[in-house]
Amino acid sequence: MMSSAPSPSATAELKAGKVYLLGAGPGNADYLSVQGQRLLAQADALVYDALVDSLLLQQLPPTCEQWYMGKRGGAPSTAQSEINQLLVRLCQAGQQVVRLKSGDPFVFGRASSEIQALKAAGCSFEVVPGLSSALVAPLLAGIPLTDPVLSRGFGVFTAHDLDALDWEALSRLDALVLLMGGRQLSAICQRLISHGKRAETPMAVVRWASLPQQQIWQGTLLSMAQIVGTTPLSPGVLVIGEVVGLREYLAMPPAPPLPLAGKTILTTRAASQSSQFNQMLQAQGAQVIDLPALEIREPISWQAVDRAIADLSTFDWLILTSANAVNYFLDRLLHQGKDFRALATLKIAVVGKKTETFLNQRGLTADFTPPTFVADALVEHFPVDPAGLKLLFPRVEQGGREVLTQEMTAKGATVTEVAAYESACPRRMPLAAKLALETHTVDAITFASSKTVRHFAQIMAQTFGEEWLRFIQGSIVASIGPQTSTACQNLLGKVTLEAEEYTLSGLTLALAQWAKQSNQANR
Q1: pLDDT digits over 64-102, tens only?
Q2: Which portions of the chain are predicted below pLDDT 50?
Q3: How would you label 80-89 residue by residue, b for 16+ Cβ within 10 Å and e otherwise?
Q4: pTM (2 decimals)?
Q5: What's the CATH number for 135-250?
Q6: What share of the chain is helix, strand, coil (3-state, %, to 5)?
Q7: Quick one: pLDDT at residue 8?
Q8: Measured distance CA(514)–CA(284) in Å, rounded
Q9: Rounded to the nearest 10 degrees, how much is the dihedral formed by the CA atoms of 501, 444, 69, 14?
Q10: Which of 172, 180, 230, 413 is the most buried (most CB within 10 A)?
C-alpha cells in the first residue's frame, strides 16, 4: 500500500520548534539529569549561562548552534530582552532549543520572563528541573539544612539587593541560605547580628560547589569576614545556622587528592580518538576540554590502496604506524571482499603499543614491534636485512614523516606508500575550548603529534587573530615525544614537559608528575 504524503499541517508539526528551559545543576556535569543529557545530545541550538560546566558543551551534536549569554555579577551581560528575542527566533525557525541555566530554572533563574516571551509568541516550551546549588552546596559541605533539634526549616534568598530583604525575619530562621552574597559578606553578617542573630552563630561559605576546585570556609557571623579575607567568593553559597556545626560529624571524609584535581587540560586529538585519553586524564582528577585539531576521514581516493590489496601476495611486510592505519586499511580490505587470510603471506610490523593494541583487537598479531614508539626505531631495530624486501606502508595522505620510507629505501627495500586515511584541520574551534582559552583557565595543553601542533596553531590564528599566542601564555605545553616537542617549540615558542614513554599513558603520567611538583611548589 502506498502511503500518502504528509499534509501541510503535519509537515509544519514535524518542523515545529521547541524550547527546553533546562537546569544544569550546581556546576559539575555529573549532576545533570538523564533527561538533560538526552536533550543536549539532540539540541539544534544551545543558549547557556555562565557557571555551566564546559564538559556539558561536549555532549552537543557537532552541528548545534551555541549562544553564550552568561550573567556574572559586576560584569557586562546580555540584556534579558535580547535573550527572550533570541529564544523566540530560534524556536520559530523550527529548532530544538536548549536554554541551559545554572542550578534550577525556577530558583533565581529568570525563567518567568523567558516563558512569558515564548507564550506571547506562541512557542512551545518545557521546563526541566535541575539541582540548585542552594541545596547541593550545603549537602556537599556536610551541612543538613533541617534537623529535628537544630532546624525545623530553612529559607533560601538572593543577596543581590540587601535592602529588599526583611532582615528581622531572616534573623529568626533556624537555617538560612544566601546566594550571590559573596561580595557583600560583611554587610550580611552585620545586618543579621544587628537584627538579633547571635554573633557566635555558625556560618559556612561554599565556593564552586561540586567542582574539583570546591572550597569551604567555616566560622561564625562575627569571624567569617576575617577568615575569608580578600578571597573572591563568587560563585559562592552562604549557609548560616546552628546546623553548620554538624559538619564535624556529618561531613564526608575527604578523598585522597588526585594528582590532576583542579587542573583544566585541553586535549587536541581527533574527536574520534579523544575518549580514551580523556578518561585517563579524568581518572587522575582533571577537567578535560576537547579542542580536536585533527579530523580523521577517508583518503581522497582509494585507488592506491585497492591496487595494493589486489597485489598483496607480492609484498613481504605490512608496516602499520598508527591506529588509524590499522583500522582504515583493514576495513578497506574487508570492503574489497577479502578477509584477513589474504595477509597470510605477509609479516606485520607496528610502531607503538596503541597501534599493536588496535591490531590485536582486530584479531591479528604483529611479527615485530620496536622497543621504542617512533618510526626511527622500527628502521634501526628491524629484525631482518631490508635489502630486496617489498614493504607495504599504508599511511596518512599528507603531512606524515618521511623518515621510514627514506631510510628503508636507502637500505635497499622497495617501499610502496598508499594513502589509507586523511587527517585534516577542523574548520572551527568548539565554543567550550574558546571560552576556556579566553578566560585563561586552561592549565595545560596536550599534543600527541606534530600535526596536532600545526593544526592547533592554525585554528588559534583563525579564531583569535595574529596575537593568538597570548591566550596560551599561562598554560603549560605537554608533548608526547621528541618530534612533537620540536613542533611545539617552533610554533608555540615553548614545550614545558615531554613524556618519557611516548604513549598517551606516558603523557598522562608526565602531567600527573608536573601537577604534583606544581602543588608542592605552591605550598
Answers
A1: 888 888 655 445 568 889 999 999 999 999 999 999 998
A2: 1-14, 73-74
A3: eeebbebbbe
A4: 0.65
A5: 3.30.950.10
A6: 40, 20, 40
A7: 41
A8: 12
A9: -10
A10: 413
Q: Please say whether the beta carbons of 240 and 151 come within 8 A.
A: no
The domain 300-422 is placed in CATH, from the list 3.40.50.2300, 3.30.420.10, 3.40.50.80, 3.40.50.10090, at: 3.40.50.10090
State residue 439's pLDDT score: 86
For the sheet containing 390-396, what is the strand order? Answer: 295-297, 414-424, 390-396, 317-320, 347-350
Cell numbers 608528575 correspond to 513
**What CATH number labels 264-294+426-521?**
3.40.50.10090
The per-residue pLDDT for 265 is 94
The pLDDT tens digits for 370-384 are 987 777 888 899 999
- What nine digits make up the cell of 172? 529568626
pLDDT 10s digits, 316-333: 999 999 888 999 999 999
In the sheet with 175-179, reading across from the earlier edge strand, the strands are 154-158, 175-179, 236-241, 202-207, 215-220
Q: How far apart are CA 436 and CA 54, in angstroms?
A: 8
- Of all residues in the chain, the percent with pLDDT exceeding 90 is 68
- Tell me which residues are annotated as active site: 49, 71, 180
Domain with CATH 3.40.50.10090 in the chain: 264-294+426-521, 300-422
What pLDDT score does 11 carry? 41
Q: CATH 3.30.950.10 spans which residues of the chain?
A: 135-250
Asked if 260 and 438 touch (Cβ cutoff 8 Å), the reply is no
